[in-house]
Amino acid sequence: MTPRYRPMDENREILRLLKERGYQARFLSVSHLDQVREDVERWYREGLLDKYLYDNYLFRFRYQVPESFPEAKSIVVVAVPQPIWEVSFAWEGRDFRSIVPPTYANAVDIDQEIMGLLEEADGDGLHLMRAVLPHKTMAVRTGLAQYGRNNITYVPGYGSFHRLTSFFTNRELPDDWQEMRVMERCEGCEACLRACPTKAIAEDRFLLHAERCITYHNEMPADRPFPDYVSEGMHNAVVGCMICQKVCPVNVQVRDWMVHHTHFDEEETRFLMKGDFSGPQAKKLAARLEPLGLDLGAFPRNLRVLLNRGW
Ligand code: B12
Ligand code: SF4
Ligand code: SF4
After folding, report:
1. What CA dihedral angle connects 83, 300, 274 and 294, to 10 degrees?
2. What is the C-alpha separation between 281 and 95, in angstroms, rounded?
3. SS3 of residue 166 by DSSP
4. pLDDT tens for residues 193-241?
5. Which residues contact 163 (CB under 8 A, 6 or more apart)?
6. DSSP conformation class of 199
7. Residue 96 bridge partners (DSSP)
């Protein structure tokens, strides 16, 4: 029987089922991993990346073929469209609505779905392994996405409303490696730069001042208080921040794409606000939060500021 996969799959047949789901993808050869490392690490060497950010997010990237997968030849980078998820909380007799931005939810399910679709489209013998690598850098380096001035990536049709993920494969696939590109629409725009309340997006450089981003602070464990320059009125999501994506004209078609996800009743909200997470109720709520990409670690701090400001 002729295998459905051909070496150097120029027709990108391997992506057939992903495309049918509206997912976009590109490839790079593992021979570029040193360059991917350099794209990120040079900023750290130059002292432009915060040490906490590096140690907690970037240090775990592995810019090499995994020891347990020596036959890896290429990486497939995938963009999966995602809406804003609406979450509501009953509190003092009223319902408060808030959001979880695109990309937090369903990470594990999405990876599993993609692996299943790639395997099904390829036929026998495809091996895949999740890549712990900087997905944005690889998405832009393959032309899958372009950077916005806000340092977030944009894909055709869905703007920045997508989750990125990548996988090592044992296939030799077309190499999409190219120069990094910023969207043409950013020229003369600056809407995100003006709107960013903490000046994480700044005039002095393209690279985000990540340690000033609201997301950096509200993703930290809840025992870390917010710094003074992150005031209560700036908070706009249970975790993360949507300000620079909401004002972006490229997102005009997706910015109102919101789907209701979960409601926490008065008793559950009270428990989340208490901050003492022991017993069976904690387990139950952790399970409710998990599909949203959240855990109890962000509570009660993040919810308290939202309820205080009346969202
Ligand atoms: C660390 C991290 C954070 C940190 C730091 C963010 C940052 N910009 O580095 C914090 C906690 C602040 C954060 C926040 C957010 N994050 Co985050 N985060 C990550 C993580 C783990 C790594 C990102 C990374 O590689 N940073 C290192 C820096 C150096 O890389 P970079 O940001 O791509 O910056 C490049 C450009 O600045 C470029 N550059 C610099 N100068 C110039 C000049 C020119 C001309 C050009 C072309 C390029 C260029 O060089 C850099 C390196 O390539 C990824 C997951 C992953 N495994 O990749 C998710 C990820 C990037 N995050 C994501 C999201 C959605 C967010 C938030 C939007 C969440 C939210 N709604 O609140 C915010 C956005 C903040 C922002 N404006 O960037 C998504 C992005 C999806 C998308 N559409 O882009 C990712 C990919 C998660 C995912 N699986 O989908 N995040
Ligand atoms: S708001 Fe303007 S400058 Fe910022 S990413 Fe969007 S188009 Fe680019
Ligand atoms: S996510 Fe919010 S704080 Fe972070 S860069 Fe965008 S607007 Fe600024």
Report:
1. 40
2. 21
3. strand
4. 999 999 999 999 999 999 999 999 999 999 999 999 999 999 999 999 9
5. 79, 80, 82, 102, 103, 107, 110
6. -
7. 89
User: Is the CB of 57 inside a 6 Å radius of any atom of ligand 1?
Assistant: yes
> Could you tell me the two tokens for 28?
């790079």
Residue 231: both structure tokens together? 């005031």
- How far apart CA 33 and CA 52 sit, in angstroms, is 24
Distance 281 CA to ligand 3 centre (A): 33
Kindly indicate the confidence band of residue 275, based on its pLDDT and cuts at 50, 70 and 90: confident
Q: Which of 59, 133, 135 to mutate to test the pocket of ligand 1 (most atoms within 8 A of CB)?
A: 135
Residue nearest to atom 6 of ligand 2 (CA): 248
Whether pTM > 0.85 for this model: the answer is yes
Residue 9 confidence class, pLDDT cut points 50, 70, 90:
low
Q: Which letter does DSSP use for residue 178 in this model? A: -
E-assigned strand segments in the chain: 24-29, 74-81, 84-91, 94-100, 128-130, 146-147, 153-154, 162-169, 258-264
What are the tens digits of pLDDT across the range 57-94? 999 999 999 999 999 999 999 999 999 999 999 999 99
Gap between the Cα atoms of 100 and 92, Å rounded = 22
Please tell me the predicted confidence (pLDDT) of residue 191: 98
Tokens for 20, please give them.
């049918």
Q: Exposed, middle or buried by CB within 10 Å (0-12, 13-18, 19+), for 145? A: buried
Spatial CA neighbour of 197 closest among 243, 164, 162: 243
Phi, psi (deg, nearest 5) at residue 123: 95, -160
Residue 178 identity (one-letter amino acid): Q
- Two structure tokens written together for 22: 């509206």
Cis-peptide into 300, omega within 30 deg: yes
Distance 152 CA to ligand 1 centre (A): 6
* Res 276: pLDDT: 87
In the chain, where the domains are located: 13-309
